[in-house]
Structure formats: structure tokens, C-alpha cells
Amino acid sequence: MSKNNNFKATWTYADAPESTDHIQIKKQYELFIDGRFVKPIKGKYFDTINPSNQEKIASVAEATSEDVDVAVKAANKAFKSWSKLSGKERGKYIYRIARLIQERAREFAVIETLDGGKPIRESRDIDIPLAANHFFYYAGWADKLEYAFPNRKPKPIGVAGQIIPWNFPLLMAAWKIAPALATGNTVVLKPAETTPLTALKLAEIIKESGLPKGVVNIITGAGETGASIVNHPNVDKIAFTGSTGVGKFIQKAIAGTSKKVTLELGGKGANIIFEDAAIDQAVEGIVNAIFFNQGHVCCAGSRLFVQESVANLVIEKLKRRLETLIIGNPLDKNTDIGAINSTKQLKTINKYIKIGLDEGCEIYQPECNLPKNGNWCPPTLFLNVSQSHRIVQEEIFGPVLTVQTFRTIDEVIEKANNTPYGLSAGVWTQKGAKIFNLTQKLKAGIIWANTFNKFDPASPFGGYKESGFGREGGLHGLKSYVKFDD
Fold this sequence. Notes:
Shape: globular
CATH architecture of the largest domain: 3-Layer(aba) Sandwich
Mean pLDDT: 96
Number of domains: 2
Largest sheet: 7 strands, mixed
Distance between the termini: 62 Å
Strand content: 15-25%
CATH topology of the largest domain: Aldehyde Dehydrogenase, Chain A, domain 1
Number of helices: 16
């Protein structure tokens, strides 16, 4: 594996670690059911690990099917009164949760970084503010549903079983819980087993907010716990964000039932750079598209397409930019790329890097000193790849970018669409007509123009093909939590 240090940066930054003195993490966490924290029926616990140093953070309760049943019963009971509460009153509770997240934003950010490995700048500036904003946004819709669905008389569905991934733990919880509550549903939420702490901290806030007991239940566990939620006969709606493989399992599991479902699954986003793009801006966009959150992003721009006439320039600038990225302690405010979320995911990423090398692709990694302990992977470029290479076709979910060139618009559209996924894409050009042309022809649920990975609570997010169906965020995010008489 060759490395190139021709572009090595000539400056360094002094360490700027974020303090952890202000956070409160318990040694052991229980299940949050019916408004209180309760021990798991079978007394099982698992450890949550700091991926940057492999140290144990806390023990977390492992919910079994018996615990799921208790949580669903609590949610069903609470639904009878919560669904009858006026939208104005529901909105007050949701708004209060948003305010409490804001008030404890610094604590949430540090815990998110400790548990997940992402840089503190991202937790502080993106994850936590966006989570609060989603609660604020849907608090505003709670008493306006008749305007959201004019002449339709929307009604809540019932109990929503929600299963979220490990890459954006608090944000994904907000995406799911806020619209469910705004529309009068109750919730049983399961966070990912590797990143449960901010969801459990959210449970503390929910309790503090005075939300009626049983309206939101947060239970922890692994795949079996999630399967118990999916298969429970008294769960009326499933909302899942995660891998395409698990999404297919859920579809099979609920076939023949009356359960509604939304799935936000994997992706292999195309990021397209035209010769008339603002190149320096585009290079920053490339870095943000694939190295944000260590590439643990379903909508990451993991396939780069550069118009042939500017390919050498873009690749040279991209290599220079990679040399300046700081990899290391996620709590350091200088860090650009943090720790890979788990040992298991690091093995998956390294497996794909080996596949790329075995397939004859050219690799580029900047010279960098990785910490001795923890899960680390340097930002990686693969050049001279083709559409048939596995690293181009399969989701890696790590800081690995494949680079291809193109000559014409028709060629890049065909290449970009040549994937089973359909979640995201990016287009970089100064021509508005070119942007509108591609947005009509790229088969992706969300397309960014001259930016990437920009999110807003008012903007719907989701994909199609093997990237799932349904939308979260915006007015669209309400629809999957209501039913109509007509």
C-alpha cells in the first residue's frame, strides 16, 4: 500500500480537548418504560464502548421480548389519552423537549462523541442543534394538522415501533419521535446497541418534561430486540433506519399485516463535478460528502465523478486537502475525522479496502499518525476504478471514496444511476439549467446542488430502489404517522 507525502502540511495545531467534567453518565442504565427506568426482566446487560480508546463507558440493559411486550402495552395504554389530547397541548410537550435539549446541548454533544466516535465539532454544531430543531419544527405542526392535510381528517395510527442506527443516534431519535408525537401517536424506540447513551439521556429529558407516562418508551438491545418490536402484534407502525439487508427482513416480517412502514436504508451516493464548477468549493464539498462522520452516512457521496478535462486538477487538490485533515481524538476541537464506530465496522471497511486492492485499483491515503488504541481508518481514495468494481457498487459505510471520470452529461447520468441504491446525489456546476436537467434524471431521493450533506427539519429526506421508501422531515414526515377516514 503506497502512501504519498508530497503534500504534507507544514503546520500543526495545539490540542484543544473538550471538557467532560460537566456530563453525567451512569455506570448502569435501565429501560425507560411507562415513564420510569426499570430493570430488564431477565437481568441482562451489555457494555457500550468508547471507540476511540476501547474503554467501557457504561452497562446498558438488554431488552428481551418480554420487556418489549411491557413497553408496547404501556404505549397502547398511553395512546388512549395522548391521541385525544389537543394538538396545542401536544405541541407544548414537544416544544419543552426541544428546549431541554438546547439547555443541555453541550452535555449531549460530548456524550454523542464519547459513545459514537464522531468529532466534537460535528456533534456540537450539527447533530444536537438539528435534533432540537426537529422537535421545534414538529411542535409547530401539532395543532395545524388540518392545514397539513386539508379536507382529509388525519388521525393517529397508534403505537409506532422505531429502530434507529448508530451513525446519528440523537438526531435519528428526533427524526422519528417528534413527528410521531405531533400526530398523536405513542412510541417504542430502540437505539443501536453501540450508541445507546444519548437516547437514554433523551429519556431523562422526556421524564423531566412531564410528558405523560408511556407516550415515549426507550428500550435498548441488539437485533433480537428490534425483531421483537417489528413482530409485536400491537405495534401499528414501523419506522426503521439502517441497512438494506435488515430493511428487507422487516418487509418480509410485516407482509400480510396491517402495519404501516417507512424504511430509510443504505446508499451509494454519486457526487458529480463538472468542468465549470467552482473547483476549490467543490473539493471542500467532496471532503464533506464522504469524510463527514468518518463516512458513516447513508447518503454519503462515496462515488465521485469528475469531468475528464478537470480530473487531474481536482484529484491533485483533493489529495492536498486530505493531507491537512486531522485524524485523532474525537473530543479535540481540531479533529476532522474521528474514530470508526465499532471494531466490527472497522473490519468491514478494511475488508473493502483489501477488495479494492485485490481488484487492481490504485489507492491513495495521506500520511498520518493514527492513535495506537481505538478504531481508526485514514481517509482513502481509490483511483482507476470501474463500474464493475465491488467498492463502487457496494456500500462501505466508511471514509473510502472511489473516483471515476466522465466526458458527457449522458455518460455521467448513466454511471450515477448504475447502482441498486437511490438515496442521494450531488451536482457541482455554475449552470442552473444543467442542475435542473440532472435533478430530473438522477435516480436519487435527495439531490444537492453545489453543496452536500445539508439538512433542514422542513426538508423531506428519503430514497427509493434499495434505499427504502417513505420520507422523514418536512410536511412529508407527518404523513407516515397518520391515517385517513376517506
